[in-house]
Fold each of these.
Amino acid sequence: MVAAREVGVGLVSVGWMGRVHARAYGAVRVHYPDLAVSPRLVAAADVSEDARTYARDALGFERTTSDWREVIDDPAVDVVSICTPNFLHHAVALAAASAGKPFWIEKPMGRGAAESAEIARAAAEAGLVTAVGFNYRHAPAVARIRELVRSGALGRITNVRVALLADYSADPRGALTWRFRSELAGSGVLGDLLSHGADLAQYTVGRIAETTAITERFIRERPLPGSASAGHFERGSDTAPTGAVENEDYAALLVRFESGAVGVLDSSRVAVGPHAEYTLEVYGTLGSVRWDFQRLNELQIADTRDGYRTVMAESAFGDFSRFQPGQGTSMGFDDLKTIEAQLFLRSVLEGRQLAPSASDAWAAAEIVAAAERSAEARSWERIHEVSGETTIDA
């Protein structure tokens, strides 16, 4: 039996997503024993003492710090997970690249296309593999959609619909946290959710070439947060002073793919009703498929004139068999992050890009940037092409 290679892990920010990353590293050893890797949780950074305590006592990190730079500089740290708010992504990622340490970063990677380009180029110049948190592409049903599209089973792809509708900011009493400020977050729902939609569309169908878009802010003011560390779901009082929301609550894009297919992508963070209705529909001349994240383990397929049939995820769908023995037993959100962690670690061990790359995140950021230009100018905009290695067509 091959001895497992130890990989020292550093984590920057121990919020919800940071905790998901930490759990995913441990789960890789359970679900991918053939990878022969032993992630060692070395160091975690967070400004919150409670978060640092959790990282040590619950997650099992050997040491913690309030200064993220100490994680990057730690000689025992081989790879870095970057789970900070958007405004810190750029600095932490560039520091990791400068230190020659592969990183797994959440999206949006930068506060816009310019920052995303700098991060991707820095990683490429350092010769690093990377990973980006486009976890929805790892759903076994999405893997099956990609196979059906790329094999020609659906015929010529004619049109695509992607919708990411959520209610996490539907309450107007939700505090004005960093997510609603352009300086700290960059765009609003475009980067937060619709970047996932852009990645799903490109991963399954191919590169998007141009777009025209509209955006809107439906809730224009929110209560100021009670503290600088206010959480994503904090609610302000009816008497609290308010501040302006600076980025969009809703976006809708018409897109044209390089292949000639067309599509509609839309996303909302203030929809009343859907909690996480993230859907992907692909239509071709020989059939179509539909997937909804809220029914993660199901896929609707129409490959005859008799309409849709529902197919449960099973061993032939992506990495499903790594987690469950057969149809009807469900996978969950954390499992998608485990697949992502495995791809990141495998990329590091094998020295080749297998996980969604920094250039993939840059490509999504260019779609967001084109949508922003379009919404302002009320025009069609070309999507700027990116350099570096992407996994869209891998």
Amino acid sequence: MQLIEVENLPGGSAAPPIRVGDVAIAEEAIAQEMQYHPSETVGEAQLKAARALVVRELLSQRAVELGLPPVVDAQGVENDAAMTELLDRELEVPEPDETACKRFFEAHPERFYDPVQLKVRHILLAAAPDDAQTRDAQYHEGVELLEELTVVPERFTEFALRHSACPSKDEGGELGWLTAGQTVPELDRALQHLPEGLHDRPLASRYGWHLVSIDKRVEAQPLPFEAVADKVHHTLHEQATRRALRHYLLALEETYGVEGLALDEDADGALMQ
């Protein structure tokens, strides 16, 4: 979607109003909608909000034309049931057959793996991210504890009970089996690359420093097609739905006319959430 730049307008005073057919999209409505589209910049949030309102209005006008229930009620709240009824009636989404599914599976084997699994113990030496003095002190304590654990690894449970700030200390620091995404991102990234055994230095996270032992590591394993057939089918069906919805919205834009904003190849994003 692209808004017309102010500097490209005669006089450069203000952007033109956004209209769908004869209906104007009010600036106040865009401002209100922005809260539902968190973005890195205000301009990006405004863009997403305007696009969502344009898409909603296009669908509303089409529903009225077909004599279907309104997709937005008098208070401006989307009617999900009415939206579904309209799209079920209007969209033609081809179902992927087994041949297409197998072709996709063979072309993207990296998507269909059992993830790396790690059996982890840790000791958390707590320190806030902005407390440089405590973080430094805790790091040095961690180094000293690791030096002792390298010589006497069987003391890990004892050290967890004595030093860890994590509730897992009552279980000897046991976190159980972990896969990617089950810890805070900064620690998660580090864990994915560790071999079995006691790691030789403290690992940082927003909570402090972690002394980590990987007791068991099971590498990622490729899955057979039969195990992921439903997932492949769902992926291809979603892709087909996105394409059909994008073409449908661009056709509605052509039919009813949109001023002040142009839907682009991401037109489906306002609904595929």
Amino acid sequence: MKLPTLSLNHRLTTPFLHPATNLSASRSSRVSNGPFTVRMSLKEDGPSVAIVGVTGAVGQEFLSVISDRDFPYRSLKLLASKRSAEKTVTYENRNYTVEELTENSFDDVDIALFSAGGSISKKFGPIAVDKGVIVVDNSSAFRMDEAIPLVIPEVNPEAMEGIKLKSGKGALIANPNCSTIICLMAATPLHRRAKVIRMVVSTYQAASGAGAAAMEELELQTREVLEGKEPTCKIFKQQYAFNLFSHNAPVLSNGYNEEEMKLVKETRKIWNNKDVKVTATCIRVPVMRAHAESVNLQFETPLDEDTARDILSNAPGVVVIDDRAANFFPTPLQVSNKDDVAVGRIRQDVSQDGSYGLDIFVCGDQIRKGAALNAVQIAEMLL
């Protein structure tokens, strides 16, 4: 049986949602070689925008989010490697030619959204900044640089203070890691109320986090295993279908892998709190798109579960799915292609005395809020 070709933005059909659920949906339109049937975002007084890595999964999601949110741009420049240059993309009823990324790509650009890998960001990010461009970078290249803000708009918008569009002064802004964004969208509203002193996170991360090729391999392996064949293992060193394993990031000398340490270090920077204790275990699970995380929180002051549920119900970008009677809680499928992060299993930690601990379960779309949406929201703050 021949495997059907997957697009870079492979979509899953969202199942029936519980009546109490109100996840904000993205439009179903995506960049393609055919007409892009969405409203125009072209505005003469908007900024000129460049997308670096436009042919990748997150690059395509940038285009989708810009259209979904009607982000106003004066002009749009699509940039990629030499291999992808000269391709024609039809987007919002206009034809664009993908241009090769060079040192001259950022003339007359106001905002550049980068998602092309750390080495590309390290080389071309400073070049763009020197030309007065505000760069929002999705790689890990600049996240831990003390001089560069690491931003989740709902969490720490104050980190961008002083960065102005069309001021003649360029700037770099880092997009956090996807697992950090999804976790802190839920943990931060509770942290503001009762101050988190320790956080234990276990992640269940989808194939989308490893890119389109990993998504394709997961589907291929699933077919192969069901047909009694040996699974193709090119992206990962072991079978992914019907299996789970430690995240494929390199393991460091302390026994943690790089993905886990990103959660530790980025949380401390975003919360501006070097004393908060964070530990993480990151697992790759055979889910196509959207990450799930189990989060245990220990607080400085008491916080009961009813108050926590109320806080989360009113938090921006968060939706609560917490129906104990029906055993209905967040799942990756529910949040796939959605903007909101879903939170459920909100319960008191019985291992701690009093109301000093909570357990929550969080799900969020890794490509959307975990990457492209967060970056576009940062760009919106500049308008």
Amino acid sequence: MSNTDTVWITRQAHRRLQSELAALRSRPSIEVPEDFMDYDANLVANYAARQARIRQIQDLLNNAVVGEDPPDDGIAEPGMVLTVRYDDTGEVETFLLGVRGVEDADIDVYATQSPLGSAIAGARSGEQRTYSIPVASSYPSR
């Protein structure tokens, strides 16, 4: 996510992210000794992952619009709750087009970078879109 991407989130999601950020920041830092080869690789990896998540949450919170819906200009865009119907099955699905890591438990979230999210972004009501889902790699036969 770039620093100019606006993210619409609920007050509940905002509080949850603030709590998660506080918990991550409260964990002690690690000091890597000069003899790095003898240091616990898992500890270093976990620390790096924690720092990455802290940066991600900070970026989300810095760009968040809290408790407001995005403007409804009739175009599918991040922050909107969308309903789609799949032509091949007739199944109807409602979800939030958004950013993973911000979602509430009440609704499924599809990231704008997901196959469905990237296909539907910019669509207007009634417009048909197609997309392909990644196929799992095949396993070698035994």
